[in-house]
Design brief:
This protein is of the alpha/beta class. The chain has helices at residues 4-16, 18-24, 41-49, 63-74, 92-101, 116-123, 135-143, 165-172, 190-199, 220-228, 255-272, 278-286, 292-297, 322-341; strands spanning 30-32, 54-57, 81-86, 106-110, 127-131, 148-152, 158-159, 181-184, 203-206, 234-236, 249-252. It has 14 helices and eleven strands.
Length: 342
């Protein structure tokens, strides 16, 4: 006999993330994080087909490559998905036009504060989602026309901000009720989802948890590195000299991490000796990681490449189909509500 407590809990979950589901057009208010080289057509389509919201990571793609990726994704799913565009991309306007041509329903503007012009241009044909690292910027983005926000804590993988999701949620969720807000960073279990929904989130974004999906094209060694790792293995890149700022990236510690520190030391020494000017030194430091993520994800160089991962990597235990991962998250969310009401 079916336990009525579970029906009550499921109904409660549906009510909690109803606004997020409606905004995304999905069964679950779970967005997939846009991870370069990882969030391509196969994973994106798998997430959308399983009831979540897949997001293509445009990254440094040209308009032609993005067009092909969108078309390829549409061939694999008829469910809603989005496209993540980096605001610093030199061809941002052209990429927005590609999304328009393909009638993309949701555009995510990330990697910096988007201009009101970019938001307005994308809003002409799509719902626009922006990343808000602080309350004052969240309000500014909504005034500029953002239809929804993502707040991402420093627990996340890849390029991160300085504030944890625990703090961002307390700062932003109580103040932002006009648009849906999705929480990201360190989310790998359903209990975390219900907690954030009850604080006022419309849904969540999950990245690290999906890297070891069966449908993910990441190299087997990349996935093995995730499965072996603990939370403390996912560390942020260290900046040695404030004159040479390093954009923080969270990734698994490896030989490449050590080599990056040594590279900074050598470049700084050359600068102090007058062998290079500040601009040349900064460029040399920034170029260290060029192609490092692709080497890790695609080629499987998990020693020298950049194995970007969030702190939730410690909860990634095996390779699973996307549908199974999402079902687990939802079941855990329901179970947590049942326990709470018991």
């Amino acid at each position: 006999m079916r336990d009525p407590k579970f029906d009550v809990a499921r109904a409660r979950l549906e009510k909690l993330w109803a606004a997020g589901k409606e905004f995304l057009g999905t069964d679950y208010a779970i967005m997939a994080g846009a991870m370069s080289w990882v969030s391509e057509r196969h994973l994106v389509a798998a997430v959308s087909n399983a009831g979540g919201f897949g997001v293509i990571a445009c990254g440094s793609m040209t308009p032609e490559l993005l067009s092909a990726e969108i078309a390829g994704t549409k061939a694999l799913t008829n469910k809603p998905f989005g496209v993540n565009l980096i605001t610093m991309h030199p061809m941002l306007d052209d990429l927005i036009e590609v999304c328009r041509e393909h009638e993309v329903g949701h555009v995510v503007l990330a990697g910096g504060l988007p201009s009101s012009t970019a938001i307005k241009k994308a809003k002409e044909f799509a719902k626009v989602i922006c990343f808000a690292p602080a309350l004052v910027l969240a309000k500014k983005l909504v005034r500029s026309g953002a239809d929804a926000l993502v707040i991402e804590g420093s627990e996340a993988g890849g390029h991160i901000g300085p504030v944890s999701l625990t703090v961002l949620a307390q700062e932003i969720l109580p103040e932002m009720r006009d648009v849906p807000v999705f929480c990201a960073g360190g989310i790998a279990r359903g209990e975390a989802i219900t907690g954030l929904l009850e604080q006022g989130a419309a849904g969540v974004q999950v990245g690290t948890r999906l890297v070891c999906a069966t449908e993910c094209i990441a190299h087997p060694d990349f996935k093995k590195a995730f499965i072996r790792a603990s939370a403390r293995d996912a560390v942020t890149t260290v900046q040695l000299d404030e004159r040479f700022p390093v954009i923080p990236v969270r990734a698994l510690a490896n030989k490449g991490t050590d080599e990056f520190l040594e590279t900074q030391r050598k470049v700084i020494a050359k600068f102090r000796a007058g062998e290079v000017d500040q601009g040349e030194a900064q460029l040399e430091i920034e170029h260290f990681w060029a192609g490092a993520l692709r080497r890790a994800v695609i080629d499987g160089d998990v020693d020298g490449g950049s194995v970007m991962a969030g702190q939730s990597v410690g909860m990634v235990k095996k390779e699973q189909p996307v549908s199974e991962i999402l079902e687990e998250l939802v079941e855990q969310a329901v179970q947590s509500l049942v326990r709470r009401d018991s």
